[in-house]
Amino acid sequence: MPAEQEPIKRVTTRSLQSMRDRDEAITMLTAYDFPTARILDEAGIDVLLVGDSLAMVVQGHDTTLPVTMDQMIYHAEMVGRAASRALVVVDLPFPEGQIEITRSIEASARVVKETGCHAVKLEGGAEQADRIEAIVTAGVPVMAHVGLRPQNIHVDGGYRLQRDTEKLVADAQAAQAAGAFAVLIECVPAAVAAAITEAVTVPTIGIGAGRSVSGQVLVTHDIVGLTSGYTPKFTRQFADLGSALGAAATGYRDEVRGGGFPSDAESF
Hints:
Blueprint: H1 13-21, E1 26-30, H2 34-42, E2 47-50, H3 54-57, H4 69-82, E3 87-91, H5 101-115, E4 119-123, H6 129-137, E5 142-147, H7 153-156, H8 165-178, E6 182-186, H9 190-199, E7 204-207, E8 215-218, H10 220-223, H11 241-258
Parallel strand pairs: 1-2, 1-8, 2-3, 3-4, 4-5, 5-6, 6-7, 7-8
Helix pairs in contact: 2-4, 4-5, 5-6, 6-8, 8-9
């Protein structure tokens, strides 16, 4: 008889902490649909982020601001159903994390109740400490997000490198004290990210933050060549699915127009 396979171990907030404590790098990628999430989960990615970046890479908007809570729930439900190993984190979209705290609690509760996902991500640090604590107290794990905050784009006047070490360290420490299980650090100099990581004990996940963090996150569309236009310095393309998809579509078009598809073998 074949040997019994060990059950797949679910990544949890505790196992992420253990990874940080062992200095084992954490991997995180975005996912917005069932097939992509299943592939990433089977590839062993530790954390899947249903990011509000879907407003840009899926919906075609210029910022993350237009995506709604109902749309986030729709996409998160697909990802939550696909992931059998990864921890799945869902962004609280604008303005669910900016207005009254009770609304943030209700939005976070919707995530875990309606999608099967496990945690939410909330932009902000010290000024969001009360909100983070309230959501965690309500039973929903929170990943904090410091540095560049895309939902704050109009206040900041653009996507800018964040350099204020003292403020960013204070933000991360306040988020940890409020109960955040991890801190995402976006678009800061590597030395600043290292200072933040040194100042907290929870995992830090970097995007455009150098190597001195507990793990890395990127937008999946960026790493497989499915985005167009501006590509951030901090991303890397690991495959060119955009060109492959274009070639497949062109081949299909030519075969249909030339009468080569469907063939007799592909007909009933």
